[in-house]
Write a structure and sequence with these properties.
145 residues; alpha+beta; Bacterial Protein-export protein SecB; 2 helices
């Protein structure tokens, strides 16, 4: 299997401040929620898209100082993706390539809002999503381990 990144675009980058009244020493627990969607173009089975999204949303039960959404789409061209194992390896690889851009976008977005930048953690390939953790039990390439 061969694949190459053809482009990355930001579908949505949004930040809004929440006027939350808390004691000065209160610490907020920021728990970003991640999601991923993978699509293939029916007319061109070599073209693959991965959408990575991270959200921080304030709720009554869990107030946050801000709401944030960052959604990036990576466009890839891949050949010889024939088996479920190939598709899983491609999904993990695409995620691994696009995720650092998502981290950077979130850090820049929060820094440009003049708040302490939110720096997302470095997450090893194959551990970000539950379906990837299960897939790494097969003979994945060394790059995924």
């Amino acid at each position: 299997m061969k694949y190459a990144l053809r482009g990355i675009t930001a579908e949505e980058l949004s930040y809004s401040i929440n006027r939350v009244k808390m004691d000065p020493n209160t610490k907020f627990e920021i728990k970003p929620q991640f999601s991923r969607t993978i699509r293939t173009v029916k007319e061109n089975d070599k073209l693959h898209f991965v959408t990575l999204e991270v959200k921080v949303q304030s709720t009554e039960d869990s107030p946050k100082p801000f709401n944030l959404t960052a959604r990036l789409v990576g466009i890839f061209e891949a050949e010889d993706v024939n088996t479920d194992e190939d598709r899983q390896i491609l999904a993990i690889s695409m995620t691994e390539i696009v995720y650092p851009y998502l981290r950077s976008a979130v850090s820049a977005l929060t820094a440009n809002a003049f708040v302490n930048p939110l720096i997302l953690p470095v997450i090893p390939a194959g551990t970000m999503f539950p379906e990837d953790r299960e897939a790494t039990s097969f003979n994945a390439p060394d790059a995924l381990n």
